[in-house]
Amino acid sequence: MAARILHRLRHALAGEGGRQERVRGGCEAEDFPESSELEDDTEGLSTRLSGTLSFTSHEEEEEEEEEGAGEELGEPPQAMGAAAGAEDGEWGPAAERAGGSLLTRQLQELWRKSRGSLAPQRLLFEVTSASVVSERSSKYVLYTIYLIRSGRFDKAPAAIARRYSDFEQLNRRLRCRFGCDMAGITFPRKRLRRNFTAETIAKRSRAFEQFLSHLHSIAEIRRSPEFLEFFFLQDLQAAQRLTCTGMYREALATWANAYRLQDRLGVCGSGRFLLTLAGLAVCHQELDELGEAHGCCEQALQLLEAQGSHPLLGPFLQAHVHLAWKVGKDKRRSEARLQDLREAGPPLQQQPTLKECLIKEPLE
């Protein structure tokens, strides 16, 4: 029965793929999206298979609606053809209606297993939107990229917004350091014209997804400062500026996104991650969200458990003791660690507070 269902699903997918090929006018798939001249812009909506990318001209933005809006990330696509309407492994009349309801549990399970066996990935990069930004002396496209953990749904996804020059700088820095590893990685070339057509933007979006996925598949590159800072350094710098100017609500949102980015990239033990926790703790405390601030300090102290001389250890311990007293939590362990620091080093009165550490930390 499972084989029969899988056969029907493959048949439906093949039919859908054929329809999409006809819509594209029979064009052959490109190994590299920027390897040939692009067609003139067809104004309005431009859609790709690896997610949904919308690019709407200003004249039509009130008329066009984003295709696929409302679908949750990580969910399988809707049933196609005869696969729709099947229940409990039986095929009734409803199963023969084209474009019916969502896949049943059995088909969903087959779909997940098929995707997992064909392209196992732990982190996916998806360009979800692209917008043309016009400034006084320049005009560029800003691409919004989501970092999605395979097989999960993130209620608050990690996202970045980058322009072509940001990707180009990353590519240049990595080629200088990892020449051999970067030899087989393609990058969309610059164009002298038609940079702002919907077709160009859609193809570049796909190319950037492939570029980031390829980089992330190489262990040395995905652990490099150049690759990691491309994702979260801008957020850290912006959050630090907002914190210094007292815009704590805006800073909190930026620190939180930097936290999610580092979590997706698997660098939750780094110094930058501790600084992020410090930013979250300070902003929560300034906004009188003491329970959340206490939780950030506890997480940081767990990471610092095996370290006895980290510059942020003393400030985190002092903040944790103060917040624990405010929210009625146990503070004895932190007080004992503070006492050990007093005996081993300079007086704690000479140490900066968590907020002072955050403001003075150079982020370059």
Description:
Helices cover 49% and strands 8% of the residues. It is mainly alpha-helical and 364 residues long. The protein has helices spanning 2-23, 105-118, 164-177, 179-182, 198-216, 219-222, 225-244, 248-265, 271-286, 290-303, 313-327, 332-344, 354-360, and strands at residues 123-134, 139-149, 158-163. Mean pLDDT is 75; it is low at 19-103 and 114-121. Helix 7 (225-244) runs parallel beside helix 9, helix 10 (290-303) packs antiparallel against helix 11 and helix 11 packs antiparallel against helix 12 (332-344). The protein contains 13 helices and three strands. Strands 1-2-3 form a three-stranded antiparallel sheet. It starts with a helix and ends with a helix.
